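Ticket 4471: requesting a sanity check on a complex prediction with fe (ii) ion. Repro inputs:
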Amino acid sequence: METKQQKLVNLVAKISSLPTLPHVVTKLEKMLENPNVSAEEVNRVISSDQVLTAKILKLVNSAFYGFPGQISTVTHAVVILGFSTVQTIALSTSVFDLFEMESKAGRFDRRRFWEHSIATAVISKLIAQKYLPADPEKAFVAGLIHDIGKVILDQFLHVYLQCIMEEVYKDDILFVDAERRVMECGHDDMGAWLAEKWSLPIALREAIACHHQPAKAKEGKILASIVHLADIFARVKNIGNGGDNHIPYLKQDAWELTTLGESKMQEFYDEIDDAIEKADMFFSMVENK
Amino acid sequence: MRKMTIDKVQDGMVLAKPLHNIEGKVLLAQGCKLSTRIISRLDEWGCDIVYVEGEPETLSEQKSVLGYSCKDGDVEKLLEEIELRFSNVSDDPVLQMVKTTLKEHLIRKYGDHGNETAETGESGS
Ligand SMILES: [Fe+2]
Ligand SMILES: [Fe+2]
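Returned structure tokens:
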């Protein structure tokens, strides 16, 4: 019998041209490993890409980062917000650009999908800042690309996606459950595989691979738990749509890692509303494409 | 209502939603007519997106429906929708608590205090 890994390899072998991250973003990812990198150096790398520079400046000046309209250069952004925030922004806008926004024929709505992804990113960051301490920037990125395997399916293995969506609608079930009926590896494996191709850090890859079963993660357990919960709360708050219409089961062990509980929920929902509203620029970027 | 980034705003457009600064303070009230002078200052005030009167002319000008929308203040209907969304996880105690607190949250947001919804209900309008 073929292993799950082989199944994945066979499947992705059908993909002819895989989307790759822009050179600048990959370079930033490497630079992040060096703690002594200067704002000037970061600026030099980013400035080589004019379009990216403009997008970064637009986002750093949005309400989401707390300094609206006050940041005029990339160097300034790095000094105020830190390198890892700027790198997150560079990666995020590049990811939007890799895929077309127009949905292909069928039931999978790409814009609603990206809304789900941005909401998951925003909520992941919030959880990491307040309820389950972790690097908020990593949490944001992990949330943003947790379901990226679904877009790969839609773009490159469309027949599979169509079968999955048919199952979802026929029996009103969750995307993951429908996926299991159609193929043996899932969007989580596929997303993690892409993240590896993109040389993203192991914790991030694990968070993607295990966002439906955070207990299976090792180095990325915290991050996977955060994304698992944020994914559910994006659905609870009905923001965007990842392909189905139900709330999936919440993994108890992930929940227990957080300080969330009944008495904190009202505050948490208000914080989500507030953060989502401030993230308007991200949503606009998806809508305007 | 049309949603647009500040670079697309033109002289004479009318605000369909109040304009807040980052601290949530109202800078310009709903119904305010935007002059060239005001438009040139939007950037300094840290505004990036504004909502103006009129029918959306492009897809991007439509405000996306983020979160629940409460049409005509019909909270009951919203609560029914919640029941439906949670119907497959009725045996999960944490999610039951999530459902109950979510309902409280939505009642607080859209219920009794009808006139406050314009302020707090933005993500769902
Ligand atoms: Fe998923
Ligand atoms: Fe998801």
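Notes from triage: Chain B touches chain A through 36 residues (CB under 8 Å). Leaving this open until the requester confirms.
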